[in-house]
Amino acid sequence: QAQLVESGGGLVQPGGSLRLSCAASGSFFQSYIMGWYRQVPGKQRGFVASITTGGITNYLDSVKGRFTISRDKDKNTVYLQMNSLQPGDTAVYYCNAGGIIGFWGQGTQVTVSS
Question: How many alpha carbons fall within 13 Å on the CB side of residue 110?
Answer without folding.
Answer: 31
